[in-house]
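Reposting from the mailing list since nobody answered there.

I have sequence plus structure tokens for a pair of proteins and want to know whether others read the tokens the same way I do. The first protein:
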Amino acid sequence: MGVVYEVVDREHDEHVALKTLKRLSANAVLRFKNEFRALQDIHHPNLVRLGELFERQGKWFFTMELIEGVSFLEHVRADGGADGEADSKANGLLRSHRGDRPGPRGFLEDHAWMIRAACELSRARGEPADGSGAWASKARDLATVTMRMFVAADGRPFDTREDDTTLFIRACSTHDGATPSGASVLLHALLDLFERTGDQAVSDSALAVMRWYSKAIAESPLGAVHATHALFRMLSGGIPGVDALGVERARDAAAPEAAMARSEQEPAVEIYAPEDRITLREGVPGELTVMVKVRDGLHVIAADPGEGEHASALTPFRVRIVGGGGVTAYADYPAGEDYGVEGVGKIRVYQGSFDLRIALERTGEWTGRPLLAISYQACSDTECQRPVTTELDIAIDRA
């Protein structure tokens, strides 16, 4: 975990916040760097501005805008709640609010996540499980508003409100990727609320949404993986009436794809590098060798997968630069080994571990924050995962 101090930036003559790590470990430093890199180039009125990431005597730090206020625990322990609570009961949530200027109105996902957050706060504060606590009541009120504003009579959850005039069509998203759809978040929010309150009306709402969602789950359990997870929660949690949905066949069909979804959450490829930064000078290429380890039971498509329709439909292994420009990456890719069945088609793949030599060269104007990344597609003997691009924890500096 990190710790934050108030310090003086003498170069700019201003007070800033300085974040550092309490304990140093390879994993903690990696997460610390990723936190900074993910947010550094994002600018929004409701987000803290980040400054610089630097290292001194083996310790890592980054600076950020200093915000005056109270701690999170002081905020949630305060009696009452957020300003405008009565208005939110009637009109829903706003995405932001500054002074007298209300921001855009919240979408389905905003309401669903806030219901889940209120349920977690109810649990963290030890409120009774009968739903009588303050945070459980807030979650129940917001769930009522959400169902009224976003969910049709047949249980269909829409991404936006019915009276939203800024959109040409009213979307209803069901596909789950790395980010879940608003509809699947709503399912989990209703299940969280039912666990906190035991309210039959809440479970009926969850059943209505699941009844509409069940077709998408039956067609592609993996494509609606978070909703599939909600279905499993309903089956294992004894939600009254869930068996009447006729979901047993969907549950059996979903098992292999759900296992594949869990497999995708584990990294198929691990990259080990001997250093964590490389410096590039004009006209002088930089070089390093990394070890690539493919998880047992999987293979990744080779850089040159071969010819034919089977090879062209897959994503080859590639080293690339992301997040900036002015740097080009080259690699000495191994040939790979043949994989496939005669008469059907063969491709070349990588399995196990191998060394990969990478060369970096400055090729133009330096822009952004160039990062070294590897793209690949992992497959088992039965199916392939989605293509993945992984950033390596190797800083690229210019001399």
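The second protein, same order (residues first, tokens after):
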Amino acid sequence: MTPENARSNAGEEAKLGQDTLAEAQHLLGEGFYKGAVSRAYYAAYHYARALLFLKGLDPKTHQGVIQLLGLHFVKTGILTPIKADILPRLETLRGLSDYHAEADFKKADAEQAIRDTQEFLDECSKILTRHGVHARASNSVGRSRRKRPRARARQRPRPRRR
């Protein structure tokens, strides 16, 4: 991954994080607290991935993101442990939200998750800006900025000749 590609990938990932945070805020406003908590985590997750792209890293798992963030940003002093600890806390909440039907999140829980996410994103944004990466959210909530491939028209089967 070239430095230009790394910055471009980081910017796209950060934009996705901004969009995801907007989704979390929308879900909170509509009273979907479990969904808001889950989306808040994913906003932070995308920003963590953006940071890792700056180092040429592309982890394939959530735990890989957390571990590499610690190794390349916390241990080097770029990101404080207090800010970095937000991501695994949010991941725990996301696991409860997504996989445990009995988990009950209140409005205050979702609001705190979003505040924590914003704190994490603010810190990550400072690092990204120092590397020339700026993220801006798209105008629509819930719409990915990545293009989806168009569905191909089904071809009719050719009649068999006898």
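Reply #1 (J.P.):
I read it the same way you do. The chain has six helices and no strands.
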